[in-house]
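Form 12-C: Joint structure prediction
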Amino acid sequence: MRADILVFPGSNCDVDTEIAVRAALPEWEVWRQWHDGADLSRTDFCILPGGFAHGDYLRAGALAARSPAIDAVRRLIDRGGLVLGICNGFQVLVEAGILPGAFQANDVQHFVCRDVHLRVESTRSPFLAGCAQGEVLRLPIAHQEGNYRLTQGEYQRLKGDDRIALAYCGPDGEADNPNGSYGGVAGVLAEDGRVLGMMPHPERAAWPEIGRSDGLRILSAPLQWLAQGGKL
Amino acid sequence: MQYAEVAGLTPAEAEEARRRAGRDLTPLEWAVLGVQWSEHCAYKHSKALLESLPKAGEQVLAGPGASAGVLDIGQGWACAAKIESHNHPSAVEPLQGAATGLGGIMRDVLAMGARPAAFLDALRFGPPDDPRSAFLARGVVAGVGHYGNCVGVPTVGGDVYYHPSYQRNPLVNAMCVGFLRHGEIQSAAAAGEGNLFLLLGAATGRDGIGGAAFASVELGADAAQDRPRVQVGDPFFGKLLIEATLEILESVGAVAIQDLGAGGLAGAAIEMCDKGRVGAEIALDAVPLRAEDLLPQEILLSESQERMLLCIEPGRVAAAQAAARRYGIGAAVVGKITAQPTMRFTYRGECLSELPTGLYAEAPLRALLDTPTAQPAEDALENPAVRREDLPNLLGLPDLCDRSPIYTTYDQDVGLRTVVRPGLDAAVLRAAPGAPGVAVTTDQNPRYCAIDAGLGAEHAVAEAARNVLCRGAAPIGLTNCLNLPSPEHPEGAMALRDVVAGIGNAARALALPVTGGNVSLYNEAEGIAIVPTPVIGMIGLLREPERAIGVTAPATGSAVLLLGDGAPHLGGSVYAEYRGLGVAAPARPDYAALRRMAAWVGSASVAEAIALLHDVADGGLLVALAEVAMSSGLGLDLRLERADALALYGEPSAQFVALARDAAAVRRHAAEHAIPCRELGRATEDGGLRLVLPGGVLQYGRAELLAAWRRPS
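Section 2 - Result
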């Protein structure tokens, strides 16, 4: 099996993600691919990492979303591959129209970096199949434009289709929203559940030796999913 | 005459330049010389003094004179670190001033061949209720976040103080820490006749011209007019520059490398040639420009950001350019090394200037004014009984309140090297998972320095050492940033002498090498001089950073121990200022006590015995206890022997509060190292402080402490 991390100019979590994915999927081949000429024809799992692709000029993710590498991502999605967009990668997927919604600046009007708690809203995706519905995870966020916008109708539709993957909460599951996202949404799925966009950084919490391990569960989940009959 | 004067040179310096050249200089030469001989580049007032600082240490792989100091941290790994100021630019354009301050120090660490791994920011502002100071503080913090977050280097620590003397002249000191393998250390000495200068990075524009000269005079009331001298940073481009530079160094190889900072291309080329005792011919028309009509002099002196200069063998240029192209950044051959130590600047086939490298590089030093050593006023301080409201009042003071509104706007984690995030004491970084690491901090206390600059400098070193000790790390070296007023006034000259002597005393007493740093003089605005501000950046060694103190949380029921000594003093304390007790100098740091702590921490696995260690510093014992309670989420139920201000709010120089995992082991280790150890009580679940004092009980709930500490910013 093979995982590929797409690297745009300005991506700055690509190496972190590579290190974490190697730890999470020890038997897999893991590659980082520069956006220009990226070939995803042999990959099973593509990750769009965090950072500031193309400097976030124009809008976060807007330029990267229109690059040829995204066509390769679309082809991977068409053949049933797994795609995970983390932070800036989530913004790119939204700008590309692969995931719904839009982003604006955090309601607090500045960058926020801290641990947050997340309630697992759906276990349908291969990335959250190892979690229990309603379980609370702890992961760090680090973003300036993480205020995820949906119309009420869109939110209801996504909810109905079981496409809300993660929602911000407090340590005991109570309401807590670090950036003003609509409905506290922190992660959403594409229709078939194989594409997950999420603002928190699982690669920064793949390290049990320093007490941060919930991200490892998300990054290693494809293993369990495949073992339980998931097909790529 | 007039060109020399415009360039900021004194008549005597101009005469010396003419004498060395054997002729009058051209306008272009005067302009270059003015920058090279500025205080900012030439350290005219401080160079002789800085020679007195200790530099040797078993871990030192590169010291002062290199782009950044490099320390051995074991297993083939090394840590590069340096701190630098960007004060004047931040006074007129806070966001870009701070952003380019980070960029500049990051490129110094990159020039050693290290991957930049973390920033720390030491910030000094006027009172937060002053609108101008609040504006500057907001802009500076936004600038640090703007650059660090985007360039992909976490900001993991720093310190902030407020004092009226910084109102018009804020201080922005940025420290960068990087990691590298021993074999990857780069040189800045150009060498090899026929080797080429490759200018890597951004195209050159008209920004930041004269920045070094601007930093070498006091700020005037019309400082806003100096805004064009402030450079503009582009962290996106900076990220590409990091990747391209490291790839070229690793896969292509360079003879020497340096960043373009003060003095632009001229400054970098002259310094690199001087270090290698060679010369160069620089073709100014080969420099890629982003403004078409730049004059040769502007091309030479522009301080456009995100540029590096590499000395490279001709056969490797094509490979280096190919690597740069992949990242979409420029790499132009702009010069050639000559064996004869002469700097030749050509433009469109014409030689504009030819002068010896050493003429630019060796500025005549200036003698410091003779001054008597300061004899600070000594009030006899009374030792009043404390009041219940003192603790919440102190916690809400600008210098002591919660810093999370600042550091949570910084990415603290990118790069995966952050093991302990900012908050208390020092942050912990690892070179890579499983590799050795360091504890890092910046420190200086303006209250102490305002009373006695030299003693304040000693305490800055002591405090920084305590902070890395709190992580279980033994201090192994320091970098310093001396922010001072004009050395041309007796008070400024005296402050410069005193702080260098103070750092030297402390560093020698703790057997620590000073691996380099930066001197920023002329920090005066509208006639008000800043408090002498010697900021210390400390590196502590952690062979197993994943086992540093603070990685795992302390448990309810832990014994609360008071470790160490260094008798508390009220002189210069927060409490003395708050109660208006008078002005007196703090006691000298107890170096012997700090050395005993360092010997213990460096020899044993303290993290197995201690879950949390926090030094007693600004605000004294009760403030330290409140900080322990708030950060751990635990309550502390304690019995204290005294209830007077000196005991509860005095500031000792070598005392620590510990939450023990294994109290018996802590007592045993402490006894072995002759460290006093006293049990104060237990950690409880309720989250507040309960203090049984001789005269009664003082009790503060967690909510009350947090409300006081998290004052609205």
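Section 3 - Comments
Chain A has one domain: 2-227. Chain A is about 25% helix and 25% strand.
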